[in-house]
Fold:
Amino acid sequence: MTRPRINPTTKTAVAVWNDKTHEYEMWDGDVTIAGNLIDADYDFIAVTYPAATTEVFTYKTGGVGGTTIATVTIEYTDATKDFISTITKT
Structure:
């Protein structure tokens, strides 16, 4: 497999591997998850995995030590992460 060429649209772009399509997808400040779920500018995303069926994305402005503007929690039906149960934004 050759190394993919990624051309981000902004400095804050993140390449995310899609296990289903086996391709990298670009997420950046101009792209939002689940259609306008994050409706503010951000320049940092942290992700944690507190359980086998949970992912928590923390969006910040001002870098790693900046202000949290949103937190998105994704719950899956089981550890395969094939199906999303809920998505919550706080």
